[in-house]
Design goal:
By secondary structure, the protein is mainly beta. It is built from 4 helices and 12 strands; from the N terminus they run βαββββαββββββααβ. Strands 3, 4, 5, 6, 9, 10 and 11 form a 7-stranded mixed sheet that branches. It has a 5-stranded antiparallel sheet with strand order 2-1-7-8-12, with no helix packed on it. A hairpin with a 6-residue loop joins strand 7 and strand 8.
Length: 215
């Protein structure tokens, strides 16, 4: 699971996703779960909207914006059924999470060695995510939040090497995970497509696109 990513600066996001400059509060470039970071969602007639929200989705039914469990990542295979993510998935509340890089742990040496993942073409990643807007029923406080979707990567030449292996499971059933990269030509399909069109995009990044190694 992804628990750290570095965001591009706003100029890089403007160039990559053709969004106009927004008056958004500053955010920390190095993001960990529950930090405030940027994500892109459909903005109606104006195209994409840049939003700052908590990395860790808050479901609408929660009584508090602070959950007792982590929600920074969502297994895409479970998004339609898990109560935390179900509403956002079925309502089509999909987003793009800009990332200059993200980190994953490699345990091939028997120890946790963090690897840094960039794109080989030098562009930012556009990671597939879900978003929600939580509203406090008493105070009216509004909190935007997002989660990053993951997909099984047991057969991926690079992503299958990440994360601590489960000694009780065979190599082909480890459920190693990978983020999902939405390419620029697929942004509209991801944000506006029907569920079948969206599911076709839920794949791990091709190996040739990945520039990775120990951080």
């Amino acid at each position: 699971m992804c628990t750290r990513h570095i965001t591009p600066d706003q100029a890089a996001m403007e160039r990559t996703w053709h969004i106009g400059r927004h008056n958004q509060p500053n955010w920390t470039r190095e993001l960990f779960p529950r930090a405030q970071g940027p994500f892109l969602r459909q903005g109606g007639a104006d195209g994409l909207a840049l939003v700052i929200g908590q990395w860790g989705l808050i479901p609408a039914w929660s009584n508090t914006p602070t959950l007792k469990y982590s929600t920074q990542n969502c297994r895409s295979e479970e998004a339609a059924d898990k109560p935390t993510y179900k509403d956002a998935w079925l309502k089509g509340q999909r987003c793009i999470v800009p990332a200059l890089s993200f980190d994953e742990p490699c345990w091939e040496t028997g120890k946790n060695i963090w690897w840094h993942f960039r794109r080989a073409d030098g562009l930012p990643w556009g990671l597939a995510g879900l978003w929600n807007t939580w509203i406090d029923r008493k105070s009216g406080e509004v909190v935007d939040s997002y989660t990053i979707l993951t997909i099984n990567a047991d057969s991926h030449p690079i992503m299958s090497r990440m994360h601590k292996p489960d000694p009780k499971s065979p190599a082909e059933q480890q459920d190693k995970r990978s983020v999902v990269a939405i390419e620029q030509g697929n942004v509209e399909q991801w944000l506006m497509g029907n569920l079948e069109e969206v599911k076709a995009l839920l794949v791990a990044p091709v190996a040739d696109l990945i520039d990775a190694g120990p951080a």
